């Protein structure tokens, strides 16, 4: 299990550093700004992420990556969408 592999101190939580490495291992290259946003959304006050929040984070990111890739028909790294598409993607619908 990926979570256990990167919870190096066996605390049952991942530090932001451990999360960065785990996301990279899962094929999700996020820049520093996005990692900060993930931390704000999913981490606790100590910037640690427990298993449940990690799982929610991974599922949401994976869904977002898949949706983006499906919309990026020419593989240019950008998509055009209207407000409804954006909201549906943002809400994981």
UniProtKB/TrEMBL annotation:
Q: Which GO terms describe its cellular component?
A: calpain complex; endomembrane system
Keyword field contains Cell membrane: no
Q: Where can this protein be found?
A: Cytoplasm; Endomembrane system
Every copy of the EF-hand domain together lies at: 1-29
Q: Which InterPro entries match?
A: EF-hand-dom_pair, EF_Hand_1_Ca_BS, EF_hand_dom
Query: Ribonucleoprotein: is it a keyword of this entry?
Result: no
Per its UniProt record, what PROSITE patterns does this chain match? Answer: EF_HAND_1, EF_HAND_2
Database matches in SUPFAM superfamilies: EF-hand (SSF47473)
Q: Which Gene3D superfamilies match?
A: EF-hand (1.10.238.10)
GO MF terms held by the record: calcium ion binding
This chain belongs to which protein, by name? Calpain-9
């Amino acid at each position: 299990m990926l979570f256990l592999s990167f919870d190096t101190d066996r605390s049952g939580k991942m530090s932001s550093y451990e999360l960065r490495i785990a996301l990279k291992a899962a094929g999700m290259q996020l820049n520093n700004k996005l990692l900060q946003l993930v931390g704000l959304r999913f981490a606790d006050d100590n910037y640690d992420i427990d298993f449940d929040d990690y799982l929610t984070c991974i599922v949401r990111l994976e869904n977002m990556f898949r949706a983006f890739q499906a919309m990026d028909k020419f593989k240019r790294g950008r998509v055009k969408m209207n407000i409804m598409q954006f909201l549906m993607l943002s809400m994981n619908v």
